[in-house]
Amino acid sequence: MNRLITFGCSLAYGHGLSDCFKQQNNEPGDVASKLAFPALIAKRLRLDNFNLSRPGASNKEIWNKAINFAYDATDTVIVHWSYPDRNIIYNDNGTETELAPWQDNDASRLFYKHFHSDIEANNDFYLRLDQLNHFYKMFGIKVRFFVPRRSYYGVQPKWCLGHIMHYSIEEMSHSANDFALDDIHPGEKTHYNYTNELLTILK
Amino acid sequence: MNRLVAFGCSHTYGVALNDCWIDVGGPGDLPPSKLAWPNIMAKSLKLECINTSTPGSSNREIWWRIINFKFEPDDLILVQWTYPNRDCIIKQDDTIDQLAVWKEDYISKFLTLTHDNHDRAIEANTYIHHANILVPNMYNFSTDIRTLNPIPSWQTTKILFDMNSIYITSDKAIDGEHGNESFHEDLAQQYLSII
């Protein structure tokens, strides 16, 4: 069976859906939700579902997983980018240091105080988008790129040829007032409707 | 072909060569050295030399300069990638703030907290790879190839020569750190033999 490979953050993981939520601490489940759009799309297209997303993932983490994955020529890939203000450091010893606004560590505090800016995050994102786009093209792998919401990202530079699809799961969730059990992430109805939208371009 | 366009750091700029050093301990506002390898090559090939390098450049800065440069179809383009332990911030007005351990305290502290050779190598290889996607006709060289390791499998750009292979044994310039005039001559000859 051919595969659907999805890279993303909590939105693609299905954080907060009924099979992916730990009520006592608002945390996601240990495995990606079967009710999230990657699983629903895979089912409808009869593909094996490989959901490699992780709640809290930055665009650099998504890019790193995507560019180092061992693909088959028949794979269909969804790269569901995250929010531009997150970052990650990959350490020599195999550990990772997450830089995120909610992280309580010195590196994060210094990063957001002195170094993070919208333009920096944009340049970094478009570099990764363009590079991945070229990478998939080179290997003839079918890929679609999405972001949570287009307005989180600035104008796309001319040199970046990666095409971001206009569908937004976050916008759908907010306009339908449909949220998951954590009251933050998109609800089941939104994942279902988002699946239908994405199927029109993935079939 | 009319122009030789070079990208790099102080080793491309020619810092500490006789025409690129002032008493205060740096090149100040002096332009790139006429004794540095880009100009030697351009002279030999009878091309106009456009040396875009900046002392203290990071690979991110070099990448940014390459992807925003207005190339002409017949430019001869050479890039000498630098050490990955540097970084920069590209600002809205297109100015660049260089980040290095010798800068202000908070920068040094941040770099100390977040610096990791593995991560910096990934980032450096990303800039090298992407710059070569956009400008595929570049000749790529490195200041020290060991610092770019491990080179990821997706990094298909070939580094044609490692400056460090002749730098280690070379005589140094006034500052005792950068290569002197004869080092730049040797480097230019190496690069000429490759292109």
Structural class category of chain B: alpha/beta
Number of strands of chain B: 7
Mean pLDDT of chain A: 95
Calculate Rg of chain B over CA atoms: 16 Å
- CATH third-tier fold name of chain B: Rossmann fold
β-strand amount of chain B: 15-25%
The count of helical stretches of chain A stands at 7
Poorly predicted parts of chain A: none
**At the fourth CATH level, what is the homologous superfamily of chain B?**
SGNH hydrolase
Low-confidence stretches of chain B: none
CATH class of chain B: Alpha Beta
Total number of helices of chain B = 7
- Secondary-structure-based class of chain A equals alpha/beta
What key attributes describe this structure?
heterodimer, A: 203 residues, four-stranded parallel β-sheet, 7 helices, 13% strand, B: 195 residues, alpha/beta, Rossmann fold, five-stranded parallel β-sheet, two-stranded antiparallel sheet
What is the compact description of this entry?
The complex is a heterodimer of chains A (203) and B (195). Chain A is an alpha/beta fold and 203 residues long. Chain A has helices spanning 10-13, 37-45, 59-67, 106-115, 118-139, 169-175, 188-202; strands spanning 3-7, 48-51, 76-80, 87-90, 96-99, 142-146.
Question: Can you describe this structure?
Answer:
- The complex is a heterodimer of chains A (203) and B (195).
- In chain A, strands 2-1-3-6 form a four-stranded parallel beta sheet, with helices on both faces. A two-stranded antiparallel ribbon of chain A has the order 4-5.
- Chain A has one domain (3-202): SGNH hydrolase (Rossmann fold, 3-Layer(aba) Sandwich), CATH 3.40.50.
- The mean pLDDT of chain A is 95.
- The two termini of chain A are 16 Å apart.
- Chain A is globular.
- With 203 residues, chain A is α/β, with parallel strands linked by helices.
- In chain A, a hairpin with a 5-residue loop joins strand 4 (87-90) and strand 5.
- Helices cover 37% and strands 13% of the residues of chain A.
- By secondary structure, chain B is of the alpha/beta class.
- Chain B has a single domain (3-194), classed as Rossmann fold, CATH 3.40.50.
- Chain B is built from seven helices and seven strands, in the order E-H-H-E-H-E-E-E-H-H-E-E-H-H.
- In chain B, the strands form two sheets. In chain B, strands 2-1-3-6-7 form a five-stranded parallel beta sheet, sandwiched between helices.
- In chain B, a hairpin with a 5-residue loop joins strand 4 (87-90) and strand 5 (96-99).
- In chain B, helix 2 crosses helix 7 and helix 3 packs parallel to helix 5.
- The mean pLDDT of chain B is 93.
- At the A-B interface, helix 4 and helix 5 of A face helix 3, helix 4 and helix 5 of B.
